[in-house]
Amino acid sequence: MTWNDFYQRQHAIRAVLDHAREHPAAPLNLELVPAAEAAFTDRGELLRALQHKWSNSLTGRIDIGIEDADSDPRGDRVEAVSAAWRRATADNPVLRRVLDSHADDPAIIGLLRQERRMLAVSAGLAEPHEPAAELDRVGAAFLGLLRTAAPSTRTRRRGPLSQLRRVIPSR
Which ranges in 72-171 belong to alpha helices (H)? Predict the structure, then answer.
């Protein structure tokens, strides 16, 4: 990919998100955004680029949150990852909405599984060596709680999210 291709794709992603902001009910269709049609070969390629943008935003915030939590004797990795996810979502609401509305698209299903696994491991709810299915299950439960739980007003050593492993039945 050349620098020109990179900038063309970045422009197309901004155009797609602007279009989605202005037309929230419109389908994700490259033909509706000429810049996207010129930069991406199909909807799957566009969705993977959008997921990549989300992943970069999320993982950067998680890295900072974990570093802060690990340097604080009272730090809580679950709360740090939760706060990072909420910040990334608040900073990118249109991107999150577009990805959520296409969560069952085969182009990004595997990427979403990777994200759930990363969330589980980063929060300390699972270990990297655990089976992928277990990591995915724990990550999915954690993500479900993130989507429904009110943000914590303070960091707690043993908050309700940190008890997640105890409430998820093992298969």
Answer: 77-91, 93-101, 106-122, 132-148, 164-167
Cβ distance 141 to 166 under 8 Å?
Answer: no
> Which positions ≥6 away from 144 have C-beta within 8 Å?
none
Q: Rounded to 10 degrees, what is the CA torsion of 136, 165, 128, 132?
A: -30
What does the pLDDT look like over 101-141, one tens digit per residue?
999 999 999 999 999 999 999 999 999 999 999 999 999 99
Residues 38 and 8 sit within 8 Å (Cβ to Cβ): yes
Report pTM.
0.85
- Token pair recorded at residue 101: 């509305």
With contact defined as beta carbons under 8 Å apart, do 137 and 171 qualify?
yes
pLDDT number for residue 166: 52
Residue in 134, 2, 43, 106 with CA at minimum distance from that of residue 16: 43
Beta carbons of 101 and 94 less than 8 angstroms apart: no
- Is residue 30 within 8 A of residue 36, CB to CB? The reply is yes
Is the distance from CB of 81 to CB of 119 less than 8 angstroms?
A: yes
